[in-house]
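Allow me, if you will, to draw on your knowledge of protein folds for a short while. A protein sequence and the structure tokens that stand for its backbone fold form the material at issue. I would ask you to consider whether the tokens describe a fold that such a sequence might reasonably adopt. Thank you for your consideration; the sequence and its tokens are set out here:
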Amino acid sequence: MASPYAPLYPTFTPHTITVPPPSPSPSTLSPQITIHALLSPPTGPPLLLLHGAPQNLSIWHRLAPLLALHYTLILLDLRGYGASSKPAGSPADPKHAAYSKSAMAADCIAVMAALGYDKGEGGFYVCGHDRGGRVAHRLCVLYPEKVKKVILLDICPTLAMYSATSFSFARAYFHWFFLIQPAPLPEDLIVGNPQRWIESTMGAKGGKAGVDGIFDERALESYVKGVAEWEGVHGMCEDYRAAAGVDLEEQREEVLEGRQIRCPVRVLWGKKGVIEMLFDALGEWRKVADGEVGGEALDCGHYIPEEAPEAVVRHVKEFFVN
């Protein structure tokens, strides 16, 4: 099967992997899910890269050629995004558990197992941006034996961010509250003008003026395409609905039970973004990790892999060493 991302990743091999449903789980919550992944030519230790919203695995195209010299890269589209499955929400799933970060983390484990990267000593490295960082958080907590180290890009824990909601945060991240409204209102409005949605939301969060100053034309076209289809917008909305529901419940349970990230953590965030303005990134991650947590602010906005790829590559090579 050809990958829609071949022009950006000409040397990567595409894979479509069917992931098992969670067990036990009602069949209504467990449609067959396939995850689209790209695998670089094998060179070094495995590194799993997880994208954010409203994007797809295209976000790594400026990093991949440099990182692929030192790591075997596994890029995937999270469920609900890109070329992966986009299961429909259901009244039988009022908490949107089909899009919980636990379900997405299980997808990642299934992909790594299918590609043969779940058996190495000490597991694999993970780097996640935005929503992908939230999936990486769950990976670290639920599968501590699998994740060697993790890099998190421009996020704080979901529970910390919702708990600290202020007027400034709600205004800057209005989409967190718009996308969680019941279907089909957000879906119908975004599909009505997908180009405007991307330009208005992604351009506003970038460190440079407008989307044209930040993104590769081919990548940007794929982001617009993702929200031009109702199923794609629905998948994104379900992701956010889960974050405001089941994901918060799971993180509260973790706090009560004392379950934390056990592997070393590096956090990078944009000096021109909301994390820098409203949150103590290192402090918040230290609250949910029992090991090393370090990092720094980079001179960019929210879309770090595309705005500051050289800085991310430097941190990856420094931090992801045996």
